[in-house]
Amino acid sequence: MENVHIAPVIGPEIESGYIRIEGDRIAELGPMAQSPGAPGTTRIDATGCLATPGLVNTHHHLYQWATQGLAQDATLFEWLVALYEVWAAMDAEVVKGAASAGLGHLALSGCTTSSDHHYIFPKGRGDLFAAEIEAARELGLRFHPARGSMDRGRSAGGLPPDVVVEELDEILAATAEAVDTYHDPSFSSMLRVAVAPCSPFSVSADLMTEAARLARDKGVRLHTHLAETLDEQEHCLEQFGMRPVDYMDKLGWLGQDVWFAHAVHLSDGDIARFAATGTGSAHCPSSNGRLGAGIARVSEMLRRGANVGLGVDGSASSELTTMAGEMRQALLFQRARYGPKALSARQALELATLGGARNLGRQDELGSLEPGKLADLALWRVDGPFTAAVDDPVCALVFGPQPPLARLLVGGRTVVEDGELRTVAHDATGRAGAEAHRRLMRLAADR
Ligand SMILES: [Zn+2]
Model-level pTM? Predict the structure, then answer.
């Protein structure tokens, strides 16, 4: 790759540089003047483009592609109560179609690695976890699915109806099986599994504790929703007599192997504990805005050394949100709250790349463009008729709407070229998502 502006996230930016890829790794990069020329290699002329690390999405619910646009003016709890019953009708076919659309959409916004948090497994509806993994494999994205779960239904003081929860023992067995079947800890891994009970208001303390034990036994990461809304904080104070972070701390859930989704309502002490323990969080500004949840204290967290990545969150709480768009949304939210110095364009890019890689425990392999790291990168066209008026390409990428995606490489393999998916039929993923929506609405109406 030649003649490209490189924003490597770690190390200095290079205005006109080259990146040489060997196998699935970055072999070297530098200014064009020092390019070795490497005869016999495939050359990509990237004049007019900006190269960044591939974006890393650290919170999602792919199945929600099938329930977008519903409960439009609801709070989180109202929205969940409206949708749980619909989700109870989903099957593997819905999940596959929704995941294809969701992941295709992410790839087209520069995302090379995505996590997913799937926590509803209606009985007799096929293998939902396998369905989303198949979608990611077909597309060729690096995938970190988290086996989610809920065991605290309404009759036990939880928020979800009993019909969508599972028994603790079956959850632990299914989660262990998911890890044993799919988790690949290798450097080049395309798939790693995390353990992810859903939230304090839908999961028992026993499940939280046992899930943490299971994840640590298996050497995989832990994920859940935390401190998303003031309603959740109230629920925790009422039911457990403590605030969400205190509760999770008590259950052994702070540590370098944990990342929480949202973390909006944190105290100064909570932020200090996140920093001290290496606990990460996935900031999902569009979803927080859509549900009126609040604005996370991201710039304060960064200043105090707590790791933050970005997440698009499920498409039902942030319709058609893109990874590139979340950089802009994060920047605007922080500046709206704290002023124009709260978050720079380059800090927003770092959240979306290295911050995300750290959340997933993959900072040695992903998140920056450096020799030896995996060749996951996005090539943005910044010489178009509108972006060309902005001299700083990182500013054009983060401050403005998403520029065209010239190329997306995952482990050196082209997944997107000139704004079109190359690993699967470009239009097929969107069609599969629309069909998944229609199918789920039919199934839900028939229940
Ligand atoms: Zn979520």
Answer: 0.97
